[in-house]
Structures are given as structure tokens and as C-alpha cells.
């Protein structure tokens, strides 16, 4: 059995609020295996984003241990965390967060700039990523010229272009209509199948949930339910 | 990465436009100020050296004490011998004797009665001996309005404004009244050979220039001179050399306690000019410093505002695996790029205005009416090689400092919090 890609043991995260503290995650344990297509669900404020941020090494645990790809998040230096994100973790945000001054191509290329790749290689990878999301014809467009669905597909391409092992998607469909929501999740599902990339979602969206293989429900910073979903093949 | 930064700067007008404009203004002012000071200082300095201080000047100690009063009773005796000595010891320099004097001139009418009378200051310089460069130093040829240079003994030049006031023309005679070295009354008749305008209020108010030999004779100063001036043959003042020569010359007289022993002063040591230059240089540097400070504060604030808008970008970049240090470094690079763009444009603008002021000049005669500083009444800027790069220092420095201060905010915020701004 391969080592899990994410191993969380007894994680607690507290935020200072004024003079006291607020506990966002409490004694949470969770194991996520390579290649999973799973989601965190739960009411607003239940700690989904907080958990994703810690897995993505953007934040650190208060107590407990979080290992991502065998590395302990708590002990990573800034530099090590940056390298982990740069090579192995892709992020997809609710509000796309494309950089408006750059073209679609450059937005995706940006993710590769910190890696030692030649311009030719970068171009090849970027075009490949745009092909995955079906946007090769929009390479020269500016983000302002794209629809919401197209923007989110660019941000998927940006997360996927470096072929990370893990993609964290925080409410990726929240700003999209039904058709586009289906479309982007299908795209990610396809990439999950083809590239064996692990996807962790945070979502409220039923349309997204129906594609997930596993749903972990959070409540008040604790795991309330953890269930595998059986898909009826047709 | 640079390509991305440049595109980011150019694509995001709010990030670049205001900083570039601010830098432009500061840099063009710096360049302009530099050229202006260089021009005014340079011309004043040359004029001062030529008319008054020399590159070095030898006087008696007593004379040096009150040089502004032209105390010819304290003049150097045995000036010819001393001049010859100086020429031998310091052949790099051109040594000339001069007498400055004050007096009265009197223009008679046909009957020989006084028609007009007025006080003058006078310069006695070597106009007649072959190879003398004094006429060039006084820029007489170019300053001549009417008539010609003195060609024989007994001829004098007077300033044009003065001549106009007294309705005097070349060929007219006048009597110079002064006092001898011993303090008794002296007078001598001269013929006006020409009128001159030097373009400096101090000089043009009322002055005459006569030949050295005439003055020595008229003022009873045979073999005496108020001052012996030394000029570098290169015509450029060289402070290091002047210091060396001055030190070696004065060393010979340290044991001598006589108040009539000669003393040599550098241009910089003499009345007012050094302070004036130092003052102007300090003021210039201070103004540039104030520009830099003001620019930095403005740019810091634009940087802060721009930075707030850019937390999304920083958050995304952090998520993509960029380090805070790297983001901070790119902010500094951006500062250098924006500073360079602004400095190039600002230097262009500053140089253009300076060029205009160099060619056209500004007439400050009106405001200099009572000045005792020897300054040209039309002052010009001077474009020196320095002007091409001097503006880049405050230009780049201020944006980099502004961005550096603004960028500290990235460190102040926790990564996850920076990231929160995304939502
Ligand atoms: N930096 C912080 N300081 C203080 N409290 C915080 C901080 N970040 C998150 N919290 C709190 O932690 C709790 C969990 O927040 P989190 O953003 O993880 O919720 P969520 O499940 O993602 O909610 P939503 O569905 O609305 O996105 C919330 O109550 C939030 O107010
Ligand atoms: Mg959330």
C-alpha cells in the first residue's frame, strides 16, 4: 500500500481573536490517499478553508501533525513550503484570481516561471494545460474578456500546468452557473483519471458533490461524517 | 521574470503612472538644479578668479587682513623680485602683478573746469607688455562697447554705463585722483581709449582699468604691487595643486613674524567665494535631499495603495510557490524599473530646460543691483556630464525606498491572512 498523500493526526487550529482564541479546527484526523477525488463539506465557518490552507502549507497547525507527501507542515521553513507549493500543490479559488494585466497564456505560464524551464518547454506545457481545459484558442485573451466559466478553466490550467500531485480547490463552482459548474468538475475529474492527480475540494455545491468519490463533512472544526460515494455506472 | 514585471508595470497604469510622474518631476528638478548651480557657480567662479582672486594670490599679511579695502599702503614692496622668484619656483603658473585702488575721476570741460566727477574703483593690470594674458582674463575684447584697448601709456578703459552717465567718449581726457602708498594725494591724467561692459553689476557700476606701469607711477608704487596673482597655465583651478603650492610657499615664511611678509592664499581661501560656493553646494544637496524625501513619501503611499490592491496578486503568487522574499525582491526590481523609466524621462526634461537656460540665460541684473558678489548679470545653466546621470540617483533611490517601505506590509501579514484577502 502506497503512503497516503495527506496524513492528518489530531489537528487543532486556533486563531487569536482579541485577547482570547477561536478554535477553527479541533482534534481532527484524516487520511487522504493518492489519486482521491474527495471533498470537504459543511456549513459556513466549519473550517474547510482553514484545513485546505494548512494542507497547502499556507498556514501552520497549532497542535497535532499534518504530513503532506511525507513532509511535516509544522516544521517546514518558508523556503521548503514554497518549494512544496511550487512543484507539488495546485490551488483553485472561488474567485479565479487571474492577474488582469497578463494574457491567459501568461497567467498559466506564471506558475512555471519559478521552475527552471526553457521558454520552449514552458510554452509546450502551457499549451498542453490549455488543451486540457479546452481554451487553446483563448491563449492571447485577457482575463477581462473571458466568461466566469472560462476564467475558472484558466485557473484550473494554472493549477495543473506544473502537473502537481495535489490540487486544492476551495469552492471552485461558487460563482458559476449549473452548466459551467458541471463542466469544470468534469474537466477536473478527467484530469484526476488521466494524471492520477489528487483533488481535495471544499464545497457547498450539490452539483460538485455528485462527482466526488468521498465526502468528509465538517462541523465546528471536527469531522462529523466521512463517507465513500458509490457511483452508479451506466 | 523581468519581462513579466515590465508587462505588469506597463499594463497596470495605476501602478506605474503616478510613480513615473513623481519621479519625473523630482528628477527633472534635480537635473535642472544641478545644471543651474553648475552654470552660475562656474561662471561666477571664473569671473571671480579672473578679476579678483586669481587661482592663488600673494599679498602681504597686513594687506590680506583687509584686502577688501584695497589698502595699498600695505602693498608688497620689491614686487618685481618676488614675481621673478615665483615664476622660477612655480613655472606651471602665470604670475601677474596687480594693483586695485579706489579714487575719484574728474572730467573737465573745454575751459578745464570740472564738468563731471565721480568715485571709481580701479584695476591696474599689465595691458601693454607683450605676451600678457591680462586683457584676455578681463575679457576686454568682447566687453568693449566703444573705442579700443589701451595701446600706449596714459590710456584707460572705463565702464560703459559709467561713461554714459558722464557723457564721456573715447578720446576724452580725465584726471584720476587717488592716494599714494604714503597716503599723500596723487593724480594723473588719462585719455579714454574705450568703454567696456563686463556684464556684472559689481564691475559695471563704475570702474576704470589702466596699465600697471601707469598706476605704479601715479600712485607712487614703483616696484610695488598690492597683489601678485598666479593662474594655472591650463586655466583650470585645481584645488589640490593650489593647496600644494600655497603650503610650500607659506612654509618659507613661517619663521618670519613681519606683518609685511608675503602670504599666499588659494582661490578658496579668499573673501566670500568659498563660503558662497559651499553654501550653494550645500543648498543644492539639501534641496535634492528634500526632493528625494518628498518623492519617497509620495511613492511610499502610492506603493501602499498599490500594494493593497495587489494583495490578490501576492496571494496568488504565494500559492503558486513564490517566497515572500522573492515577491519582496520583485517589488524592489519594479522600483528600479519604474525609477529608471521615470529618471530617463525626467533627465530628458531636465536637460531640455537646462539647455534652454544655457542658450538663453536669465537676466538677474535687477536683483543683483546691490550685490557685492562678482556674478554675471545674465546667468546661464551649464550642462555637464554629471547632469546626464545625477538624476538617476534620487530617481531610482526614491522609488526603491518607497517600494521597500510599502512592501514591508507583505511580511507583516501572515501568509494565510494575505491569502484571506483573496476571498
Ligand atoms: N485568521 C483568522 N482569525 C480568526 N478567525 C479565523 C481566521 N480564519 C478563519 N477564522 C474563523 O475560523 C472559522 C472557520 O473558517 P473557515 O474559513 O475555515 O470556514 P469555511 O468552512 O471555509 O467557511 P465558508 O464555507 O464560509 O468558506 C470561522 O469561524 C472563521 O471566522
Ligand atoms: Mg471557506
UniProtKB/TrEMBL annotation, chain A:
<dbReference type="InterPro" id="IPR017871">
    <property type="entry name" value="ABC_transporter-like_CS"/>
</dbReference>
<dbReference type="InterPro" id="IPR015854">
    <property type="entry name" value="ABC_transpr_LolD-like"/>
</dbReference>
<dbReference type="Pfam" id="PF00005">
    <property type="entry name" value="ABC_tran"/>
</dbReference>
<keyword id="KW-0067">ATP-binding</keyword>
<dbReference type="GO" id="GO:0005524">
    <property type="term" value="F:ATP binding"/>
</dbReference>
<dbReference type="InterPro" id="IPR003439">
    <property type="entry name" value="ABC_transporter-like_ATP-bd"/>
</dbReference>
<dbReference type="InterPro" id="IPR003593">
    <property type="entry name" value="AAA+_ATPase"/>
</dbReference>
<dbReference type="InterPro" id="IPR017911">
    <property type="entry name" value="MacB-like_ATP-bd"/>
</dbReference>
<protein>
    <submittedName>
        <fullName>ABC transporter ATP-binding protein</fullName>
    </submittedName>
</protein>
<feature type="domain" description="ABC transporter">
    <location>
        <begin position="6"/>
        <end position="232"/>
    </location>
</feature>
<dbReference type="InterPro" id="IPR027417">
    <property type="entry name" value="P-loop_NTPase"/>
</dbReference>
<keyword id="KW-0547">Nucleotide-binding</keyword>
<keyword id="KW-0813">Transport</keyword>
UniProtKB/TrEMBL annotation, chain B:
<feature type="transmembrane region" description="Helical">
    <location>
        <begin position="16"/>
        <end position="37"/>
    </location>
</feature>
<dbReference type="Pfam" id="PF02687">
    <property type="entry name" value="FtsX"/>
</dbReference>
<keyword id="KW-1003">Cell membrane</keyword>
<feature type="transmembrane region" description="Helical">
    <location>
        <begin position="336"/>
        <end position="357"/>
    </location>
</feature>
<keyword id="KW-0812">Transmembrane</keyword>
<protein>
    <submittedName>
        <fullName>FtsX-like permease family protein</fullName>
    </submittedName>
</protein>
<dbReference type="InterPro" id="IPR050250">
    <property type="entry name" value="Macrolide_Exporter_MacB"/>
</dbReference>
<keyword id="KW-0472">Membrane</keyword>
<dbReference type="InterPro" id="IPR003838">
    <property type="entry name" value="ABC3_permease_C"/>
</dbReference>
<feature type="transmembrane region" description="Helical">
    <location>
        <begin position="276"/>
        <end position="300"/>
    </location>
</feature>
<feature type="transmembrane region" description="Helical">
    <location>
        <begin position="378"/>
        <end position="411"/>
    </location>
</feature>
<comment type="similarity">
    <text>Belongs to the ABC-4 integral membrane protein family.</text>
</comment>
<keyword id="KW-1133">Transmembrane helix</keyword>
<feature type="domain" description="ABC3 transporter permease C-terminal">
    <location>
        <begin position="286"/>
        <end position="413"/>
    </location>
</feature>
